[in-house]
Amino acid sequence: QVQLVESGGGLVQPGGSLRLSCAASGSTLSINTMDWYRQAPGKEREFVARILSGGLINYADSVKGRFTVSRDNGMKTAYLQMNSLKPEDTAVYYCRARSIRGDMDSWGKGTLVTVSS
Fold this sequence. Notes:
mainly beta; seven-stranded mixed beta sheet; 11 strands; 117 residues; 0% helix; four-stranded antiparallel beta sheet
């Protein structure tokens, strides 16, 4: 199994930036995909960004052009650079790691991002 720990959340003003990190431990060689999701108060969890071991990247339309996902070469750490933050970006941000077959699917406990003046 894989254990994930997110960090980097906090309070930021609108228009500001934050960089989230997701550190993986355990069976990290099995990781093929690392995703970022978020859940705002009273809303369902939603997809934010994805990076695959081969480098393919996807973003939700709501964050395209503002957020950038990246990883280290060993897929042990994923990052989410968030720029031009808006109040509607306020949420708990979660990291998810999956194997290519889907038999490994792990979530972190999340880190809170609050965008407010």
